[in-house]
Amino acid sequence: MSILDKLPWTVVVILCLTLGLAPFTPEPHIVEKLRILAAGTLHRPIDIVDLLFHGTPWIVLALKGIRAIPR
Q1: Burial of 57 from C-beta contacts in 10 A (0-12 / 13-18 / 19+)
Q2: CB within 8 A of 57, min separation 6: which ones?
Q3: What is the DSSP letter of 55?
Q4: What local confidence, expressed as pLDDT, does residue 15 receive?
Q5: Number of folded domains in the chain?
Q6: Which domain holds residue 53?
Q7: 14-70 pLDDT, tens per residue?
Q8: CA 68 → CA 27, 38, 61, distances in Å?
Q9: At CB < 8 A and 24+ separation, what contacts does 13-20 make?
C-alpha cells in the first residue's frame, strides 16, 4: 500500500483523464465496457482485458482516495 502513498495525486488524476477515458470519441471505452458489463454481455476476452486496462487508473484513484480518508 505504500506504493499508493508514493503516487502523486496529479499523476493518478492525469492517468484517469487520459488512459481511463481514451479513446474520447464516440464514447470513452470505460463507459462502453461498463455498459456491456451491466448488460451482462461482457464475454469476449478482449473486452475483459480492455475493461481492466481502462479501469485500472480509476481503481487506483478510488484506493488512493479511500486510503487518504483516515489521515
Answers
A1: buried
A2: 12, 15, 16, 19, 20
A3: H
A4: 92
A5: 1
A6: 2-68
A7: 999 999 888 888 888 889 899 999 999 999 999 899 999 999 999 999 999 998 887
A8: 31, 29, 10
A9: 13/61, 15/57, 15/60, 16/57, 16/58, 16/61, 19/53, 19/54, 19/56, 19/57, 20/54, 20/55, 20/56, 20/57, 20/58
